[in-house]
Design brief:
The chain is mostly helical. The protein has two domains: 2-81, no CATH class; 89-119. It has helices at 49-52, 73-81, 89-99, 101-119, and strands spanning 2-3, 10-11, 36-37, 66-67. The strands form two sheets. A two-stranded antiparallel sheet has the order 1-2. The protein has a two-stranded antiparallel sheet with strand order 3-4. Strand 1 (2-3) and strand 2 form a beta hairpin. The longest helix is centred in the last third of the chain and has 19 residues, at 101-119. The radius of gyration is 28 Å and the shape is elongated. The chain binds iron/sulfur cluster and zinc ion (ZN). The site of iron/sulfur cluster (SF4) has 13 residues, from helix 1.
């Protein structure tokens, strides 16, 4: 369940429009295209990453009250702080060995020749 940005009633996250106030919640009437909406007295562009990096060329910029492309800069910053995945120590060692096979081969030959020298 999510909340209607206009009337704050609980609504189905797939709803195309709010059943209480008819506020459109999806763009072009398609449930797969979210329509982001600004709160009262705010503009979406103020906290949109595409406004921040100056890559947006939408005509409603910088006063967009609704937008399909809006991307929250604070959420993006949080995503960047969180690593997508972390490798286990075993995986790190395996990856290192794969990329340094030549070095490991030389090390193996050195150790082998050292052992042969000592035993003779
Ligand atoms: S993508 Fe939408 S919210 Fe973002 S800067 Fe452009 S018009 Fe504003
Ligand atoms: Zn509503």
């Amino acid at each position: 369940m999510s909340q209607c940005p206009r009337c704050a009633q609980p609504i189905d996250s797939q709803a195309i429009k709010c059943p209480y106030c008819n506020n459109p919640l999806k763009a072009f009437g398609h449930p797969g295209i979210p329509l982001y909406q600004a709160e009262k007295d705010e503009f979406l562009c103020d906290r949109c990453i595409y406004h921040e990096d100056d890559s947006c060329n939408y005509p409603q910029r910088p006063y967009a009250k609704t937008c399909t492309l809006f991307r929250d800069i604070t959420a993006t910053l949080e995503e960047e702080k969180t690593p997508i995945y972390t490798l286990s120590l075993k995986s790190k060692i395996t990856a290192w060995c794969r990329t340094n096979q030549f070095l490991l081969g030389i090390l193996f030959l050195l150790i082998l020749s050292f052992i042969l020298t000592i035993t003779n």
